[in-house]
């Protein structure tokens, strides 16, 4: 009696490499106001005085918004959690007229500062004040999350990215009737970026944060926390 042919060998293991991604959005918890104090003129003394006096005025305003308790920390209800100013940057230069002749020497001085706001209404009020203050240039507002929120989102986002990678691997392997098993995980990038809110729908607590700044509406943006991981699967 003839022997039946041996069964065909099993197909070789299939390697599947995918990138898992996750994006989680949260309403900003902090607003970072960024601005500069600048002055330019023919008198070095006047230029320096302009910047110094303006910085002192700003410091007085910010100190009231960022009071410190006995332990040196800002109380939980302080509108500003912290602020900083850079050192003075100064330089001078000589302009030339249309005929190439040297004109008087001009002097300039500047410093940058930023303040981290917990209270968005106070952020809007100060921004409005700075728009009208001589020698001040407002660069804009950067929206952030607290470090505690970022830490929490990191764990949540990594899990979601892994679930995304697993689903992708199952999609590929399922077509071939195979079952994928993760064998290697490489952590990729994790970044948080501000994203402008879209659409007309607003939650109640979000609406209470709106602040009018010289006819403009200053609104906190969503901050997106994004994670990517590279995962390798073996599918039998």
N-to-C span: 35 Å
Give the number of helices: 4
Strand coverage percent: 35-45%
Number of strands: 10
Helix content: 25-40%
Question: What string, H for helix and E for strand, traces the elements in order?
Answer: EEHEEEHEHEHEEE
* Class computed from helices, strands and strand pairing: alpha+beta
Round the mean pLDDT to the nearest integer and report it: 85
Q: Which blocks of ≥5 consecutive residues have pLDDT under 50?
A: 196-212
Largest sheet: 5 strands, antiparallel
Radius of gyration: 29 Å
Globally, the shape reads elongated
Structure characterization notes:
By secondary structure, the protein is of the alpha+beta class. The protein is built from four helices and ten strands; from the N terminus they run ββαβββαβαβαβββ. The strands form three sheets. Strands 2, 3, 4, 5 and 6 form a five-stranded antiparallel beta sheet that branches. The chain has a three-stranded antiparallel beta sheet with strand order 1-10-7. A hairpin with a 2-residue loop joins strand 8 (about 210-215) and strand 9 (about 215-220). The radius of gyration is 29 Å and the shape is elongated.
């Amino acid at each position: 009696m003839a022997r039946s042919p041996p069964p065909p060998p099993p197909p070789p293991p299939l390697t599947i490499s995918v990138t898992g991604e996750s994006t989680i959005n949260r309403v900003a918890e902090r607003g970072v106001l960024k601005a500069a104090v600048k002055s330019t003129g023919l008198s070095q003394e006047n230029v320096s005085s302009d910047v110094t006096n303006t910085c002192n005025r700003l410091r007085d305003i910010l100190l009231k918004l960022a009071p410190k308790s006995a332990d040196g920390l800002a109380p939980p209800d302080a509108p500003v959690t912290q602020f900083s100013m850079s050192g003075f940057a100064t330089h001078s230069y000589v302009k030339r007229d249309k005929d190439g002749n040297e004109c008087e020497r001009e002097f300039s001085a500047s410093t940058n500062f930023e303040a981290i706001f917990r209270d968005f209404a106070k952020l809007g009020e100060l921004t409005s004040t700075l728009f009208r203050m001589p020698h001040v240039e407002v660069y804009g507002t950067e929206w952030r999350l607290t470090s505690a929120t970022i830490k929490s989102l990191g764990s949540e986002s990594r899990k979601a990215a892994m679930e995304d990678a697993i689903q992708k691997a199952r999609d590929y392997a399922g077509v071939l009737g195979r079952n994928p098993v993760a064998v290697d995980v490489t952590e990729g990038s994790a970044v948080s970026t501000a994203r402008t809110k879209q659409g007309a729908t607003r939650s109640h607590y979000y609406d209470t944060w709106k602040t009018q700044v010289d006819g403009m509406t200053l609104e906190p943006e969503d901050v997106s926390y994004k994670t990517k991981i590279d995962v390798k699967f073996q599918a039998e």
